[in-house]
Amino acid sequence: MRKDRAAYLFLLPWLVGILFTVGPFVVSLYLAFTDYNLLTPPHWSGLANVREMIGDVHLHQSLKVTFIYTLVSVPLSLGAALAVAMVLHRGVRGLAVYRSIYYLPSLLGSSVAIVMLWRYLFGYQGVVNQFLGRLGIQGPGWTSDPHFALSTLILLHVWTFGAPMVIFLAGLKQIPAMYYEAAAMDGASGWRQFRSVTLPLLSPIIFFNLVQSMIASFQTFTQGYVMSGGTGGPAESTLFSNLYLYQKGFGELDMGYASSLAWLLLIIIAGFTAVNFLAARYWVFYEN
Amino acid sequence: MNTVDRRGALKLAGLAGLAATLPACGRGFGGGGDQKGDAVELNMVWWGDAARAEKTQKALDLFHTANPGIRVRTEYQDSSPYKDKLVTRFAAGDPPDLMAMRTDSLREYANRGALLDLAQQGGKLDLSGLTDSARGLGVVGRQNFGVPSGLNAIGFVVDKALTDKFGVQIPDGDTWSWEDLATFAKQVTTASGGKVYGTNFEVWTIANLIVWTRQHGEDFYTADGKLGITAATMTGWLAMVQKMRADKAFPPAGFIDPNGGASAAQSYIAKKAIASQIIPTNNFLTFDKVCGGQLQLLRIPGETQGARRGQSIDTPALWSVAAKSKHPAETLTLLNFLVNDVAGAKAAGTTRGVPASRPVATAITPGLETDDQRASAYLAELQNEKLPPSYSYPIGASKLTNILKSISTEVEFGRKTPAAGAAEFVDAGQKALSA
């Protein structure tokens, strides 16, 4: 019991914080069924917002962008995180330094300054294209061309693999060395050891990182907002769901619809997380 | 110590989900003076940069001296976040007393009762120095919800340093046609060996498109608040730019980052990547400075060839008063000062355009910097000419820029033909205005 009390003490800031979350949460559920322009009181509109969603091509585009972004960038960034964690785990001189270097982009990646920097790097006359120019290739406007803008943001996301990498590193450290010794004794190759020892014992960590990354990536906002100056452009190619929601609520003064979009996103995220947990039964291995 | 067990993983994942709330988008206004005392405190907000802030503060210092009973607390920031912040202030029941208002948002606020009707304020606000068309910029029906903070127009700037370098003659800025622009721009690109593009202007900026529409005998917004531009006129606009792009008079697709809310110093013309563009005339001084002082200020092409004149007198921003202001009388005193005080107008300069009051404009012009005088003269000439009337932006107008930006980008990259893009714009625009 004493232990529990200590836990609640540490949870206290979060419990207090939730008071400030629950209020807006409930209000936004109400607003989702209203017509609310922020300047005059909301009007109950029943399922009008839901009906609007069905025919809203911009919403469909924003969901497409968000799905592509999540389904491509999450596996890539987790793969990169695991690969680098494996290398670092093998024992590198100055591990702490490398770990910090690889972790740094995670701290910076969604910051406005870095997104601005990327815009300059990947601009039509940016550093990347100057390099390509030396090879005789005229690169596109990586951020201004609707064919490439989302890929550029996916690359930015993959670059910020540091947070899952640190968690992977911690997980790798907890796999007892005796398993590897036994496997080596049985003549298992490095690849075989990775598949039969590392991956199963690391699977809870992979699962955690997967759920965490997917939720975060469904909620992407800053990258799209800064890269496109708030428009979701070029040509709606970076119109993330959250960005569209923001545009509707604050740009077009349609906060009722924006609230219903927020709930739609919540349902989608909950759905994906549930699928993740169901699927986890078949591939996540708990040692005890 | 063991690897994470099932319950641990569940808890962690659950916490992560709950903790990941919607991103915090709050951003504070950059702020000015904050003095308290017995004085009535007014809150005045606007968008702009540090240079405008400095000049505004100088004018307010004069106001404070003349009105010791009123303190003005100003806040400012960039235009795009300003718009978002302003609406949340209203939603929270804490609107500023005096605010800069975008012309395309005016009716979105006014029609919902958020703004004070300035026509009902009797003698507290003297607008007799304004021409009818200037006053009309803030009028909705019989009510008046905004006073122009200054007057401007759009103008075409050409960097003479570049054209001299490449030996290209600048066409006559009062009579040139859109064909003249295309020919001129192509000459510049060719003469520079492709290092400088002859021209680039924002295809999606509604103010630019409005001039084109008026030249074709149509109203972009009609008197009854509908979208007046036809698909044919819209097609012409998009096709003209695509033609220039194909001729390399305009930069290739993707060259310009349309989303960079770049300042004058970061603009493509300042970087000598293009030789000409359209700017609002109140920014002429700043642009000329960052471009090296050789900018020529021309009219928009096509003014003498079209069905009628296209240019119009606009305002960079209106001053509006919140209906819920706790100190309407003091706020009107401040607004009246901003509109009619010569010393104040002199201190504030013309970053928000030429003073809307003609006597004030006449009084301060001799003391302005040369470039501001040039922009003022440009505007004064337009004011003396007979221009077709323009109508206030209907509710929903602020959505059109994003719609056009998206469609014009698709045309730029050849994903849509100009005709298809135009049809889509007219359709989406009509819907946006009727919603």
From TrEMBL, chain B:
InterPro entries in UniProt: Bact_solute-bd_prot1, SBP, TAT_signal
Protein name per UniProt: Sugar ABC transporter substrate-binding protein
